[in-house]
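Revision sheet: structure tokens.
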Amino acid sequence: QVQLVESGGGLVQPGDSLRLSCAASGRAFSRYTWGWFRQAPGKEREFVAANNWIGVNTTYAYYADSVKGRFTISRDNAKNTVYLQMDSLKPEDTAVYYCAAANNPYEVRRRPSEFDYWGQGTEVTVSS
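Predicted:
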């Protein structure tokens, strides 16, 4: 069993940056695919970014087209923490952001149904 706790959300202006954190409890932190999703009011939960485990100190990151070049997902295995660095934020990035983990660390996963564990979410509001 894995428990996830997100933090770092808040209210920012367009063009600002935020870094979300996801602290994980449980064993074998490195042996999961880690992902970030978001859900805006009235919309479905959508994929933002994910990070596969390829091997020792090697990961593979991939992103939704809407955030590519602005967001960066990373992991710190020593701290059992996954991060989402969000730069050049736009009003359309406003949503509740969720951290998620999938048991298979090697496969590319973009659908919420492909992830096994979820955090409670942290709210991000981008507004002037």
